[in-house]
Amino acid sequence: MTNQHPISLASDVGIDYTYLRDLLAALKWRKADEETRRLMLKAVDREQQRNFNSNSIQNFSCTDLRTIDRLWVKYSNGHFGFSIQKEIWLEVGGQVNYYTEAKLGDRVGWRVMRNWLPYEDLTFSLNAPAGHLPWLGRLGGWLGAFGVWSGSYIAQKSAASNL
Fold it and tell me: Is the peptide bond before 129 cis (omega within 30 degrees of 0)?
């Protein structure tokens, strides 16, 4: 892939996205997915907890979210990214509830025959359905008090960020 239009690696919170960019450019989807999760947790100071909470997602930097999304979209030729997930999330109802979560999971291949796939069963290639990656859904499992999956919160944040 050529770098005719380099993507800004902007961050409001001092995150260096160089390694993520390099993994994506090398089409190392699983490592890039793991790095995305690591960097996002670092950006909201949740590395110790290893999961998001509603406050950390709601306050996630729009600049950082855009940077991550643009990298995923560019290096997957529009197949992966939060903006792709956002489009699908809106198509299946655009609500933060289990019903919409399940429909999103079905569409992007995170759920098969009404069962959520474990991380190791995801598809880390362009053969995956559109929007399959990045996958943040089960960072630390179900999100406790609001009992819905973080995928919709990121999609909702993406919608607010005009991704």
Answer: no
Q: Six-digit token pair at 9?
A: 């690696």
The CATH number covering residue 147 comes to 1.10.10.1770
- 24 closest CA partner among 155, 134, 157: 134
Number of domains in the chain: 1
Query: What is the phi/psi pair of residue 60, to 5°?
Result: -65, 135
Residue 94 vs residues 17, 37, 64, 97: alpha-carbon distances, Å: 29, 23, 22, 9
Contact between 157 and 64 under an 8 Å Cβ cutoff? The reply is no
Cβ contacts of 58 within 8 Å, gap of 6 or more: 153, 157
Confidence at 145, pLDDT banded by 50, 70, 90: very low
The pLDDT value given to residue 75? 98
- pLDDT digits over 99-113, tens only? 888 888 899 999 999
